[in-house]
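Worked example

This section walks through a single chain of length 270. The input is the sequence exactly as stored; nothing has been trimmed or padded.
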Amino acid sequence: MKKNYSIQLWLMAAFIVLILLTTAHPYFNSDVASDRLGIAHEVHNVIGSVVHIQSIDKGYQGSGVIVSDTGLIMTAHHVVDGCKAFVVTLNNGKEFTCSRAIIDTENDIAFLRIDRGDECLSVAEFGNVSNRRVGDGIFLVGSPYGKDHFNSVTFGIISSLSRSVDHPSVQVFGWQHLMQVDAASNPGNSGGPLFDLNCKLVGILVGGPSGAEGISYCVRLDRMETLIEEVERMFIMDRFRLQGVEDGPNPKETWETDEEKSEGGTYSPW
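Given that input, the structure is written out below as tokens.
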């Protein structure tokens, strides 16, 4: 009788241990497992800083990221080039208009600045690109094919830390200091942020080879953080209004012609 009672105790103890394991271990707990296998926490921390950009006069669309609580937004040069006015939509749906932009003449980078009023902005934090390695996890946030896909997220890894593209179709934008990632991107993603898994901003998406899958190019932001204060001053001081938004042909309007004339494939800003 005592022997049977001992066996029952052991079986009960084993059953309790099994229950504890299945509820606590991440591979048995669906909520914990999904968090371990996904990036929901990281996305939640940064998505508030990502915006949609649409030019009022040209109708072009792109993405951007807030980099200062004063309303400074970083995007791609080709998203704003040739345009005179913009509507910026925050992640919460609120819209702001602006008519000034500053472009980087060496990289496919540009800045807009909205008058935020009393709006509390979510600001992205810059990361250290030099610490990143090929194979590190990253994710992109942006609006592929426009506002209908506002702030979509794609996940991948860094495929290369050093890419330069001298193709005529993108030469004007200065694609010389790029990271290559395999996260999916499409037209409309341009100007959107590339984050590492520490929720730090490490790149700005600019495009990729036409027709290719799993190849997205992002401008590295190695030293861009040090220039933010200078860019802020340029917006404040009218005599430094450098934006190249004067009337004239926009390179985007010649992409199709470039593709027809060029050989060996093309590269397209998104």
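What to look for: Helices lie at 2-24, 30-37, 40-46, 77-80, 228-236, 255-261.
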